[in-house]
Design brief:
By secondary structure, the protein is of the alpha/beta class. Helices cover about 35% and strands about 15% of the residues. The N and C termini lie far apart (about 70 Å).
Length: about 425
């Protein structure tokens, strides 16, 4: 019997007892089958180092009845094998799992689901990684190490998430207090948790370098190929974090603007609709990861147009490194995570006019093989495989030596200085 069929049937996968020993359980804030975010990237890379169980956020039966995509997910086996060393669990719970009054019940049910999945896999758990203030308390799986992986300023973004600030703050504090150490995605969050007295290591987001290696030979996306060149673009969620004024300023200059991604909570819908009705603007909606190279093929410059907010200042946008891995120029708002990259390969801007100026400047640069190679070289310094090695060694060190002794020997330097090999627009 194959591993996939064995898991679906409730039996231990092929490989016998101990096949899943040393399991790392990632309690994620994003569905594994959705748009590929940090947790899925990390799970895939960690599974090259040891066995991993990816746990989706709790799925409500009521939501499954309303949404066909969610219903299809709920209809699958709750525990399934993605590939060797990587299993995926979707806890399906009664309606209202996120209501504050039901939090204790949700916690108990998620804990039961995960422990049951671990027993079916037949391994012992080395670590639980809570990617956000989730419903899996420390000790749920008799793990040796519990990690709080802070990917956002959740309390600052409570409104965007549709959750209670008070409830999130309480759950986050409990999660961090019970963890052996904290991994923070941005300099702002690392400093914040360090000031609160927790053992913290900075672990920024990474990039799947191989996924963007062949952008320049990909077939151009047919639904945007008629946009006049040069094309600037945004790939990612379009929501209340997005500064529409920056996109409007780029469009005002007559630049083609390609928008790829879903519309989410908090967006000024009327204003966005007015933007996308412009003849030089095209919104194509969400696209699967495999289709993104076709859209990046059309773009000259990738945009990171975030508002100046507490939530955004604590973030580390995945798209910054993904544009670079595709060899594209990048114009971004002035975020601490962007400054941490310490490179002139990313143009930093403040305000709509300056943002549009930087886009014009980036479009004016020669798109030579040397420039594109420099961008890709910078992205390669920040691969998800290197990030996974850091997390895994931190877990191993903590398991061996105890709380507070988690810092791995693998260094995490700031980006080595890689500069544009040509073009200097400073006045002589």
């Amino acid at each position: 019997m194959s591993q996939r069929r064995a898991v679906a049937a409730g039996r231990s996968p092929a490989g016998g007892a101990g096949r899943w020993d040393g399991l790392v359980v990632i309690c994620a804030a994003k569905q594994f089958n959705g748009i590929k975010m940090a947790e899925q990237h990390m799970a895939e890379e960690l599974s090259r180092l040891g066995p991993v169980l990816y746990v989706d956020p709790p799925l409500s039966l009521a939501a499954a009845r309303r949404d066909p995509a969610t219903a299809a997910l709920a209809a699958q086996p709750r525990l399934r094998l993605v590939r060797p060393n990587l299993a995926h669990l979707t806890p399906v719970l009664p309606p209202g799992p996120y209501r504050p009054g039901l939090s204790p019940l949700t916690t108990a049910l998620v804990r039961h689901c995960v422990r049951s999945a671990v027993r079916r896999l037949g391994g012992r758990v080395r670590a639980v990684v809570s990617a956000g203030p989730q419903f899996l308390p420390a000790g749920s799986c008799r793990e040796l190490v519990h990690v709080y992986w802070v990917l956002d300023d959740y309390v600052a973004g409570a409104d965007l998430l549709g959750l209670s600030r008070r409830s999130l703050a309480a759950r986050e504090r409990r999660t961090a207090t019970a963890a052996d150490f904290v991994l923070a995605v941005s300099p702002v969050l690392a400093d914040c948790w360090q000031r609160r007295g927790f053992p913290v290591r900075l672990l920024p987001n990474g990039v799947d370098v191989a996924a963007y290696a062949d952008v320049d030979t990909a077939d151009p996306a047919a639904d945007a190929a008629d946009l006049p060149a040069p094309i600037t673009g945004l790939i990612g969620h379009i929501n209340g974090r997005t500064d529409l004024a920056l996109l409007e300023a780029v469009a005002d200059r007559g630049r083609s603007l390609l928008l790829v991604g879903p519309l989410k909570r908090g967006l000024d819908q009327a204003r966005f609709d007015a933007l996308r009705r412009r003849p030089n603007v095209r919104w194509v909606g969400p696209k699967p990861s495999a289709a993104l190279p076709g859209y990046l093929r059309l773009m000259e410059v990738g945009l990171v147009p975030y508002q100046d907010s507490s939530f955004n200042r604590g973030s580390f946008p995945l798209k910054t490194l993904e544009y670079l891995a595709a060899g594209r120029g990048v114009v971004a708002t002035d975020l601490p995570a962007v400054q941490w990259l310490a490179t002139d390969l990313v143009a930093v801007a403040s305000g709509p006019s300056h943002f549009a100026d930087q886009v014009d400047r980036m479009l004016g640069q020669d798109r030579s093989p040397a420039v594109m190679a420099a961008r890709r070289a910078l992205a390669a310094q920040h691969s998800w495989s290197s990030r996974a090695e850091i997390m895994y060694e931190a877990i191993l060190n903590c398991a061996r030596y105890g709380r507070g002794r988690f810092f791995p020997s693998i260094p995490l330097p700031r980006s080595a200085p890689i500069h544009l090999p040509i073009h200097d627009d400073r006045p002589s």
